């Protein structure tokens, strides 16, 4: 696979009646990268992934793989976990995975080998001869994941792959996705589990109303969010920081105040104002979590 392998979503738009599900949406996922695609309910994640896989047609824009607009044969090399899980309910797990690998051009022996490999990796050995419809939801999800992986795809696009998995399966899948990325595959997945996304992903894109509103590493997202200060001054009366230039109070409780420092503003006047109230037990800069960054970006007025 070329080093410059990249999946590009370029100014993709899609309208459903009054709803603009994707609005000139643009981002790229490089080979070897784990990319977390996050956004509130109805933000446009599933629509974007469907467009990437050709399940839904875009009104405008283009999706490219290695610089070339995607066509059917390129998409055959993609692994896709759709939101609407699409397995054959009465087919047995092993048969289903072998069948899917064969559909993607694998010979029968290789298809069997791959199917058995993913059945083992995803903890499905005891279910390999069960009908999919008889499995628990979490185990059906594991089969669906195996179905996305069984043909050794060049690109992975996974719509909420972690949903419904128990904590052990979450760890197994996290390791699998990292491993796939380490072989040069671009991996993009959506999730509402932001702690997991923060822990796992190299870069993250936050989508709101069909538009990419923040994209980068967690540190890059933090850099764009301004500085948060935590001050613990037990004797401070309410409103102690109101007259300090360049800060706004986010919340204040029991002498502990969280403040937002404007870009370029000096934090020392804040410390001086806090000391003027009495003892200061804590004065620190807070590194916001992805969940906090997400709430800032998604909760902000357009
Ligand atoms: N087939 C459709 N017909 C009409 N509207 C649609 C269709 N598919 C999606 N939409 C609308 O497009 C918008 C984006 O939906 P989408 O499913 O892409 O969001 P999402 O980010 O995946 O949300 P969630 O996190 O809830 O799964 C929503 O307002 C949704 O109602």
TrEMBL record:
It is a peripheral membrane protein. One of its GO terms (molecular function) is ATP hydrolysis activity. It is found in: Cell membrane. Its main location: membrane. One of its GO terms (biological process) is response to antibiotic. The keyword ATP-binding applies. Residues 7-234 form the ABC transporter domain. Keywords: Antibiotic resistance, ATP-binding, Nucleotide-binding, Transport. It comes from the Bacteria. One of its GO terms (cellular component) is plasma membrane. This is ABC-2 type transport system ATP-binding protein.
């Amino acid at each position: 696979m070329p080093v410059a392998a990249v999946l590009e979503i370029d100014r993709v738009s899609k309208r459903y009646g009054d709803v603009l599900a994707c609005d000139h949406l643009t981002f790229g996922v490089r080979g070897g990268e784990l990319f977390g695609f996050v956004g509130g309910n109805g933000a446009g994640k599933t629509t974007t992934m469907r467009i990437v896989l050709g399940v839904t047609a875009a009104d405008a824009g283009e999706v490219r793989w290695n610089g070339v607009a995607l066509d059917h044969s390129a998409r055959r090399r993609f692994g896709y976990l759709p939101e609407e899980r699409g397995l054959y309910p009465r087919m047995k797990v092993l048969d289903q995975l072998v069948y899917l690998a064969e559909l993607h051009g694998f010979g029968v022996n290789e298809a069997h080998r791959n199917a058995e490999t993913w059945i083992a990796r995803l903890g499905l050995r005891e279910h390999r001869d069960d009908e999919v419809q008889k499995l628990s939801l979490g185990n059906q999800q594991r089969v669906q994941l195996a179905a996305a992986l069984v043909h050794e795809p060049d690109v992975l696009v996974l719509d909420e792959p972690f949903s419904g998995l128990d904590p052990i399966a979450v760890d197994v899948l996290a390791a699998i996705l990292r491993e796939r990325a380490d072989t040069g595959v671009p991996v993009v997945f959506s999730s509402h589990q932001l702690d997991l996304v923060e822990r796992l992903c190299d870069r993250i894109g936050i989508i709101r109303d069909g538009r990419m509103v923040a994209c980068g590493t967690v540190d890059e997202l933090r850099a764009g969010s301004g500085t948060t200060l935590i001050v613990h001054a037990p004797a401070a009366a309410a409103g102690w920081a109101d007259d300090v230039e360049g800060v706004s109070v986010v919340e204040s409780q029991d002498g502990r105040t969280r403040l937002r420092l404007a870009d370029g503003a000096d934090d020392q006047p804040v410390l001086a104002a806090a000391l003027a109230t009495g003892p200061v037990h804590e004065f620190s800069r807070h590194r916001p979590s992805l969940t906090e960054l997400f709430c800032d970006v998604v909760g902000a007025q357009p």
